[in-house]
Amino acid sequence: PPPTTRRHSFPTRRSSDLFFAQHFPGVVVTELEGTYLVWCDFRCFGMSDADMKVFLTDECMLYLDNGTDFGAAGSGYQRINVACPRKTLADALDRFYQAAKKRGMAR
To answer: What is the pLDDT of residue 100?
Structure first.
């Protein structure tokens, strides 16, 4: 695992951690490494990278960074920018939750 740094440098980072822990415990969220970009391992959903991209863009209305944009090792991962107003992140996470709930993927 990556080294632990100041995990909650961004209040929005803590919000995203709590959100995934509560509603999607199978999603692994990596530790921050001096950045505001959060990597989430979405392989627990069992979707291909292409299907995850369609789910995120078409159903969640989210435009995240696909892990495969950074190489084959990024398969199954999405990168989220948490350097934004809390309301912006809360709205994005709620769209993710609502779309996942419709598919039976959320707690």
So the answer is: 97
